[in-house]
Structure formats: structure tokens, C-alpha cells
Specification:
With 334 residues, the chain is α/β, with parallel strands linked by helices. The chain is 23% helix and 22% strand. It has one domain: 4-Layer Sandwich (Metallo-beta-lactamase, Chain A).
């Protein structure tokens, strides 16, 4: 099961003072790549204090996705999921608690990679709570009640809404940060007569100076094949792994073009899907080491920050235990 944050409230009270002090202690690995450990998962001490740096925050919200981008006191959110166990509400709390800990009042944009509940389940609540400049998605029609309710809300509240696909560029709130859309294709990827929900996830390449992030939503092997067919430059320093570390994503052909140095996997603790699967973990291990692979089920919130030349990683749970990383959700070790 995913972490039940509400059940830990009493522990949070006990650990709060300790966490505040531990939050000031930083251990920096030798070399240009650094892993910084911020102790204490109970108190949401902000993991990034340098507003001028560009940061990708992978929020530990259980079995789902929500990524916050930040720089210069401006913020944008990619996905606002809800755990795939609807009776549990910890993921929604996690997103709001995290944003509130940073003092977020406005999101320059909310980008929804695709229509699955674990990526859009909290989207309406985000729109109600924060001032959102524009909502992006891939324009794929979907019949789930959650998505229909979201689209109805966008129309009724006259929210600025745009569809983006390969070749488009997201209007960046940061003049020196470039956000490109690499997938889905303009004519989409189909499974039979209907567009495939996961394969049509929005895939983003984000560049700040010399450092590049590749964010893949739940894109799977067909989407990876499409991106490779476009001959796009997808070499990236930081990879947000596709589909929570599923075997359907992160093929070797794709990774050979990405050559990631840092990999971040968003997945829930003891999730029902066995994420991450052993196959992508084996593939990641061919390109980087376990001390540069991060998992929200183990590390908690993960933040990758860059000044445009160098980058470092901070994790909520201390220390980052590399010995646990290359073990699948089903207990198989690489």
C-alpha cells in the first residue's frame, strides 16, 4: 500500500523539531553531481532554498504522478494525480501539503500528460485552490467520469485551455528555460480504433543552460519508437522514468538515445502493480549507478536542481539507500 500520511500525524508532531534541525544538515557527494539528504519526512521543510535555480520536484504522492517545476519564485505543475486506491486520500494531501510548504499561490500552468486517474484525479481541486494560468493536455477524448468532470469544469469556469502535441512548445514562465513537446504525434497513437491513453502521454524535453530533463508521463514502447523515428535530440541528463517504472517503458533503444545520468521513478510503496519492474531497473543499471537512481517509494520527495551547468539531487528520506534501489516491486533484485 502507499504511504498513509494521515496515519503518521502523531509521529510528525513528535519529530517536527528534530526534522527542522536535520533539514539544515546537507551531505554533498564528491564531484559535480551531488546527492543532498534532507532528514525527516514528517516535516515538509522545503528541499530547495535557491529560487534562482531550476528545480524539478517529484512529489511522493503514492502510486501516481505529480511534478512541480520551480524557478525565480514561479511554479508550474505537471500532473495532479490521485492514488489508484480511491478510498485513500493521502496522495491529494501530499500534493497540497508540498505546494503549500513552498508558499505556492499561483501555478503558471498545469500540464496533464494524459487522462488516467492517477495523473488527473486531483486536477479540479488544484484548479480550485491555486490561481492557474493555463491548462495543457493532449486533447485525447476520454469517457471517464473524472475526465468529463474536469473538461466540464474548464468550460464552466472559462479556464484557459490548450492542446499540445509533438512540435509544439510550452510557453515557459522562465525566459531561459525551454520546454518542448516530443510526443504524442499530431495524429496520435492508436490501439485499435481508439487512441491509446498511455502511449499518447505528453513527453517533454526541458532545457536550462547545459542541463536537460526528459519527462515521459506514462509513455510506453510505441511512444518511444515514435520519438526515435522523429530523430529528435533526446539526450538528457535527468530522466523521469516512464509509467512508474513499468516494463512497458524505458526500452534499451530509447535509453541508448537518452543516456541518462540521473533517473527518477515515481511509484507507491508496496503498490499493487509491482512497480518498478525488474526489466527497466536492469536497463537503467546499464547507464548509471544505483546512487543516481531515485524512487519516491524509498526516497520520498525527490528534487533535482540545476544552475544550468551542474545539478544535484535532494531527497526527503535520509539517507538515500542505494542498496534498495535495484530491487523490483516484486522483490526481484538486479
Amino acid at each position: 500500500m502507499a504511504k498513509k500520511r494521515r496515519s503518521k500525524k502523531s509521529q510528525r508532531q513528535i519529530k517536527k523539531i528534530v526534522s527542522l534541525f536535520l533539514g539544515l544538515i546537507v551531505v554533498i557527494a564528491v564531484g559535480f553531481f551531488g546527492v543532498e539528504y534532507m532528514g525527516g519526512e514528517s516535516s515538509l521543510v522545503p528541499l530547495v532554498t535557491d529560487e534562482k535555480a531550476f528545480s524539478m520536484h517529484v512529489i511522493d504522492m503514492g502510486q501516481g504522478d505529480s511534478l512541480l517545476l520551480s524557478k525565480d519564485g514561479k511554479y508550474a505543475l505537471i500532473d495532479a494525480g490521485e492514488t489508484m486506491s480511491p478510498g485513500e486520500r493521502e496522495s491529494r494531501d501530499a500534493i497540497f501539503d508540498y505546494l503549500d510548504s513552498l508558499g505556492v499561490k499561483r501555478l503558471e500552468f498545469l500540464l496533464l500528460t494524459h487522462q488516467d486517474y492517477d495523473h488527473i484525479g486531483s486536477a479540479i481541486d488544484v484548479l480550485k485552490k491555486y490561481d492557474v494560468g493555463v491548462v495543457y493536455d493532449n486533447g485525447v477524448e476520454h469517457t471517464s467520469k473524472t475526465y468529463e468532470n474536469l473538461m466540464t469544469y474548464l468550460v464552466e469556469e472559462d479556464v484557459n485551455y490548450k492542446v499540445v502535441r509533438d512540435g509544439d512548445r510550452i510557453s515557459s514562465p522562465w525566459g531561459d528555460v525551454y520546454i518542448e513537446v516530443l510526443s504524442p504525434p499530431q495524429d496520435l497513437i492508436y490501439a485499435g480504433k481508439k487512441p491509446d491513453v498511455n502511449e499518447n502521454s505528453i513527453v517533454l524535453k526541458i532545457t536550462y543552460g547545459e542541463v536537460t530533463y526528459l519527462l515521459t508521463g506514462d509513455a510506453e514502447d510505441k511512444a518511444e519508437e515514435y520519438i526515435l523515428s522523429t530523430a529528435a535530440n533526446i539526450d538528457a541528463d535527468i530522466l523521469k522514468a516512464g509509467h512508474h517504472g513499468s516494463s512497458s517503458s524505458s526500452t534499451m533503444d530509447f535509453l541508448y538515445r537518452v543516456t541518462p545520468d540521473v533517473v527518477v521513478i515515481s511509484c507507491g510503496e508496496d503498490n499493487d502493480y509491482g512497480h518498478p519492474h525488474i526489466e527497466p531497473l536492469e536497463n537503467f543499471a546499464k547507464f548509471t549507478t544505483a546512487d543516481k537512481i531515485f524512487r519516491t517509494d524509498i526516497d520520498g520527495d525527490v528534487v533535482v536542481t540545476t544552475d544550468g551547468k551542474e545539478y544535484s539531487v535532494k531527497v526527503r528520506n535520509s539517507p538515500h539507500d542505494a542498496s534498495k534501489i535495484l530491487i523490483s516491486g516484486n522483490g526481484v533484485k538486479v
